[in-house]
Write a structure and sequence with these properties.
The complex is a heterodimer. The longest helix of chain A is centred in the first third of the chain and has 34 residues. By secondary structure, chain A is mainly alpha-helical. Chain A is built from 14 helices and no strands. By secondary structure, chain B is of the alpha+beta class. Chain B has two domains: 224 residues, Rossmann fold, CATH 3.40.50.300; 105 residues, Nucleic acid-binding proteins (OB fold (Dihydrolipoamide Acetyltransferase, E2P), Beta Barrel). Chain B is 25% helix and 34% strand. The radius of gyration of chain B is 24 Å and the shape is elongated. Classes of the chains: A mainly alpha, B alpha+beta. Chains A and B meet through α9 and α10 of A and α2, β6 and α3 of B. The complex binds adenosine-5'-triphosphate and magnesium ion (MG). The site of magnesium ion has 5 residues of chain B, from α1. Adenosine-5'-triphosphate binds next to β2 and α1 of chain B.
């Protein structure tokens, strides 16, 4: 019996281990690549580690392209759009689950139907709107279209609906207003789902590429991912520079993930969220 | 606080959950709202608490009309069937919550919460989450949360239904003790007649949204106003023998048995009747008997036996002395108490 279990676990860990290596290796290659010289990076057979860790590539990347500016833009855009969209998501989910108003379910069904419309189709109308608003090449153009999310509203509404009515009635008897009930009871109860929503939203905002490419053509409002792309084309295709620049772009998200890993994993498995 | 309910009605569309209900609940009493599932007990409580609006009728707390008053202004505490504790808060935070909403200063909140926690004996668990408590402990937290704001009226909606049989007995006593210590007027909803009998000063019995009878438990048991009350109270249930009265004697419909009893004089001839006998109201007799019964089998129950006997073709249950021989016919005499005649169709009581 014991031997059988051992074999089972050995196999399991072997498979998981191989999977992990496949996942981690590109990141490893990117980070070490950022420290290599141009000979080392194109050496054959490939070198796992650079001969010594020099920061020249990072310096070059930061000098040629305004990565600091991109980084600041990314931070501002991500924080603003995540904050705003989380707020609208919470309020909308509350309205669609707890408030009784005429046509509530019809409106909600219509919103859900909108999820069927592919992003690429919305992009064109959004682009026109941004131009008409005169927001081209501004950070606002990167924030405004992402201040609400039907999908996350739907996820959160479902969670809110599952909270028993008696909690609401009980709070009402204690003199709790809707507003207080939302922030003191519903939101804290939904914390795991909310953390997941915030993180997934944050990752999406941070990595967003297509939309920034459309609405920012100067470096003033550019965010990191598109900035990286611009650097690649402007700075010549030098692998070691690209690796260094890519590391700068990805690092903040990786650090965030390490800290919030527990929430992402439990949130995704518990909240029925498949990002 | 005295509660007066006048002609209270609640409709959900076509469904009438509570119909034209009148009741008076005296100050400091523990009253049980008793009735089968779906008869409108919870609806009644919600109207008293103010979370459901009455369709018509009036509710008075003392002399104040509260029918349209907002829930938070009524000063009631409500313990839900499922306790409705906030899962993300500790026991202490749960109990403090009503005070927090009322903006009571933090230090006082905690002081009052701890006092109440002591009263309901959960002061050891103040820092646990509800999911780390047993059902009985959760219930006590729910009661503490309802009591902490010093309600004028405490409403309990089947608070014991999730507990096992033994814990239910303990918690029943516990609720009685807490109620007597706080002297708060209390309405306790249950569909368990035994629970209602043992805990309450008075029982309000309802069926299909209508009040059947309201009185002290023993009065309801000894003096039921109709067949529903008689059938609803008592374990084992009252025996019903169906038949008619002719020439001052009760005959079963199939004429398989005759009961001679003075109560028969009060029942009208020519109506379908139910002759109802409480199990403890039968005894063996050598001399003058009310009817004959054939003893089929018995279960020992301590000093007496629960016996199944046939009166004609109807099986009835009664308590007979230990060692009564089975498969024999006996003369049965009825005691003064616990014998009634009801109308089989309307349930009206004749005797
Ligand atoms: N919100 C509602 N909408 C429609 N009908 C309702 C609603 N609430 C209750 N009812 C109906 O009103 C009647 C009384 O319900 P209520 O919950 O008061 O019964 P109850 O006596 O508490 O039953 P139980 O012992 O099962 O809890 C039932 O027929 C129920 O279906
Ligand atoms: Mg109920």
């Amino acid at each position: 019996m014991k031997a059988k279990n051992f074999v089972k676990y050995a196999l399991l860990y072997l498979i998981l281990g191989i999977g992990a290596v496949f996942m981690i290796f590109p990141f490893f290659w990117m980070i070490t690549g950022g420290f290599k010289t141009s000979q080392e990076i194109s050496a054959f057979p490939p070198l796992l580690f650079p001969s010594h860790f020099n920061l020249k590539n990072f310096e070059f990347a930061l000098e040629t392209a305004p990565f600091a500016k991109y980084f600041a833009n990314s931070v501002i855009v991500t924080i603003s759009s995540v904050t705003l969209s989380t707020l609208t998501t919470i309020l909308a989910a509350f309205a669609f689950s707890r408030l009784d108003f005429k046509g509530r379910d019809t409106i909600f069904a219509l919103l859900l139907a909108l999820m069927m419309v592919p992003f690429e189709m919305i992009v064109i109308t959004n682009y026109r709107t941004i131009i008409n608003m005169g927001l081209l090449n501004t950070r606002l153009a990167l924030i405004i279209p992402f201040t609400s999310s039907i999908f996350y509203t739907y996820i959160l509404r479902n969670f809110f609906v599952s909270i028993p009515d008696s909690l609401y009635k009980s709070a009402k008897i204690d003199g709790c207003s809707n507003w207080q009930y939302l922030w003191k009871v519903m939101v804290p109860m939904a914390r795991p789902s909310l953390v997941t929503i915030i993180l997934l939203n944050g990752i999406a905002a941070w990595n967003s590429f297509f939309w920034p490419m459309l609405v920012t053509n100067t470096s003033a409002a550019r965010t990191l991912p598109f900035g990286l792309y611009a650097f690649m084309t402007e700075g010549g295709a030098r692998n070691e520079y690209m690796m260094a620049a890519a590391t700068i772009v990805v690092l903040p998200m990786m650090i965030l993930f390490l800290f919030a890993r527990k929430y992402i994993v439990t949130g995704v498995s518990k909240g029925g969220l498949k990002g | 606080m005295k509660i007066t309910i006048e002609g209270l009605t609640k409709k959900f569309g076509e469904v009438v959950a509570v119909r034209d209900f009148d009741a008076v609940i005296e100050k400091g009493q523990l009253v049980c709202l008793l009735g089968p599932s779906g008869c409108g007990k919870s609806t009644m409580l919600y109207m008293l608490a103010g979370t459901e609006a009455a369709t018509s009728g009036k509710i008075y707390f003392d002399d104040e009309d509260v029918t349209y008053m907002a829930p938070e202004d009524r000063g009631v505490g409500l313990v839900f069937q499922n306790y409705a504790l906030y899962p993300h808060m500790t026991v202490l935070q749960n109990i403090c919550f009503p005070l927090e909403i009322q903006k009571v200063p933090k230090a006082e909140r905690i002081k009052r919460a701890k006092e109440i926690a002591k009263l309901v004996q959960i002061d050891e668990y103040l820092h646990r989450k509800p999911s780390q408590l047993s059902g009985g402990q959760q219930q006590r937290v729910a009661i503490a949360r309802a009591l902490v704001k010093k309600p004028r009226l405490l409403l309990l909606d089947e608070p014991l239904s999730n507990l096992d049989a033994r814990l239910r007995l303990v918690m029943r006593e516990e609720i009685r003790r807490i109620q007597q210590e706080t002297k708060v007027t209390t309405i306790f909803v249950t569909h368990d007649q035994e629970e209602a009998m043992s805990i309450s000063d008075s029982i309000l019995l309802m069926k299909d949204g209508e009040e059947q009878q309201s009185d002290a438990p023993q009065v309801l048991y000894d003096n039921p106003i109709n067949a529903f009350t008689a059938n609803f109270l008592g374990v084992p249930a009252i025996n019903n023998i169906y038949g008619y009265v002719k020439d001052g004697k009760f005959h079963t419909h199939d004429n398989s048995a005759i009961i001679e009893h003075e109560a028969c004089k009060k029942a009208p001839e020519g109506r379908k009747l139910a002759f109802a006998i409480r199990p403890e109201s039968v005894e063996l007799s050598d001399v003058k008997a009310n009817f004959k019964a054939y003893l089929v089998h018995t279960y020992a129950m301590g000093k007496e036996e629960l016996s199944y006997m046939n009166v004609g073709t109807t099986e009835i249950r009664g308590y007979l002395p230990n060692g009564t021989e089975v498969d024999k016919e006996y003369n049965i005499r009825l005691k003064d108490k616990g014998v009634f005649i009801f109308d089989e169709e309307t349930g009206e009581r004749y005797a």
